Amino acid sequence: MRYDFSPLLRSSIGFENLNRLVEFATRGAEGEAYPPYNIEKLGEDAYRIQMAVAGFSRDELDLTVQENTLIVTARAAAETETKDRTFLHRGIAKRAFERRFQLADTIKVTGASFENGLLNIELVREVPEHKKPRKVEIGQQLGAQPVIEGQKLAAE
Question: pLDDT tens digits for 115-125?
């Protein structure tokens, strides 16, 4: 008996360990979700989502960032079929879709481009100053009295 966990799992950016767990859990699941996509790590703080959206034009695609979720939607425009167009095989799917990517708090979408049927979404990790690791110097004061609420205690 096989269980399909893919409806329960979301794609995530910025959670590398979680991403590996999701990939492991869905390995062997039957069929890929439409449309296929890649998530690339371009550098220390740079990522790219690349989606294969063959058949769609730039105007039919929509990107929305809402809180920590990136939503990619596509609505196929009504095709005007002509009588002189006959398909023997129609393998390029052009159906409407909505794909959601869960982003970490520190991941920001910086841009998108569309070229040769591929949608490229650029992401960057921006860690706020107060969350960055900082070095704390350990000082040494010989003979210093403890200070409580700004006043020195009297030595007895």
Answer: 999 999 999 99
> Is residue 49 packed enough to be buried (19+ CB in 10 Å), middle (13-18) or exposed (0-12)?
buried
Q: In Å, how far are 2, 26, 52, 151 from 22, measured between CA atoms? A: 16, 6, 21, 55
Q: What is the pLDDT of residues 53-78, one digit of tens each?
A: 988 989 999 999 998 899 999 987 76
In the chain, the amino acid numbered 30 is E
What is the rounded distance in angstroms from the CA atom of residue 65 to the CA atom of residue 80? 32
pTM confidence score: 0.62
Using CA atoms, how far apart are residues 67 and 74, in angstroms rounded to an integer? Answer: 20
